[in-house]
What does this fold into?
Amino acid sequence: MQIKSLGQDHPLNRDVAKSNLVWVSIVAILLAITVLFGARCVSSQNELGQARAELARRDFNKKVFNFSSLFVNEVLRAESEVDFDTRLKLENAVRDLGDQEILDQWNAFTNSQTAEESQEEVKSLLGLLMEKVVIGS
It folds into this structure.
């Protein structure tokens, strides 16, 4: 038995060609949609990263402000020697900042031996706190 080849103009060949064109079009459209969604996903990830960085910056600034306020009110404005509970509260607040440079400066202040040394370390600590506050991005 011999199989005859169908000519290009045969209706069955035209239907197969149309069917292939439809499938190729569908695949192309789906590919384009996938690329668009992928681009949007990358964009969303970037926005999320920026939002997280902004939130971390604000959280750090708030902690610096709270510590600075506590320090000024409880140490610099103190009429008498600072009690143990206040020192503990200050120590916890400075550690909560998570900044080694500020912690080192705090330790330099708390380990001061003279009033003059203490005053210099306070100036350095307050200056460092103000330098660490991040305004904007």
Observations:
- The chain has one domain: 11-132.
- The chain has four helices and no strands.
